[in-house]
Amino acid sequence: MEGKDNNKILRMTNQRKIILEELCKVFSHPTANDVYKMVRKKLPRVSLGTVYRNLELLSSCNTIQKLDFGEPHKRFDGNPEPHYHINCTKCGRVDDSPLPLKPGLEEEAELASGYQISSHHISFSGICPDCQTQVAAN
Amino acid sequence: MEGKDNNKILRMTNQRKIILEELCKVFSHPTANDVYKMVRKKLPRVSLGTVYRNLELLSSCNTIQKLDFGEPHKRFDGNPEPHYHINCTKCGRVDDSPLPLKPGLEEEAELASGYQISSHHISFSGICPDCQTQVAAN
DNA sequence: GTATTTGCAAATACTTTGCAAAACC
DNA sequence: GGTTTTGCAAAGTATTTGCAAATAC
Fold it and tell me: Is B19 helix (H, G, I), strand (E, B) or coil?
């Protein structure tokens, strides 16, 4: 369930480097296919399979994060630090939530549940500032 | 993004009733395929497509909840009330979190982000009590 | 030199959909 | 009776995988 194959030596190939660079440049939490399109501008012959394999590998060694918002596709975040997210139900956009982490929640949940908690995540849904002004304009 | 086709009249078919009954009986947050297996014991000729269609329909009118834990398949919860979840990284089991709701978080996030927040969810990951004793036994 | 990584294409896993027949109100 | 729903099978979408050639260290 956590990182696997951590014993395998990771080589820094050009593909892997550019996938990581491109992902870290943006704050839009792109899907694998979005990353593929970004990387193809630098490496036209890269394959979608390579992008998937590298995003998976990089997230399993905690260099990036794999996110899930109930959409059919996963999203990726170049920032490996835990933080919360917020997504717009109108346009689908995903932003970082400016809320600070609530580490106390884990202790509270651990006591109440008997689980040994290792992580938690909070996601908010709502309407983003841009979509709010659009609705007002209609 | 929210319930759709709310104008359509919903008929209470035998299939729909049994799907809902079976889902409400359990607290295991089953996948569509799990529900299919449960329902087939009562209705051997039911189809997987019907199960998917009804789970989708019932969740879009907030009779049940559709959940997502980053696994390749969605899970369903017969309890439509908002509550948090906790999942075991060893055995994959999903439980309700006994933590009370934190409605203050939404206001905090709304002020900080400029989003008009409509909902939030917290999920915890860790090792469940059963798996903890198993690890100790090894 | 040798193990990892790549590109390609085929396979997989889960879910959705088209359609004619059946069921509901 | 007219619309919704079903079972079936086929299609769709996102992702993963097998393999021989290429690459990194």
Answer: helix
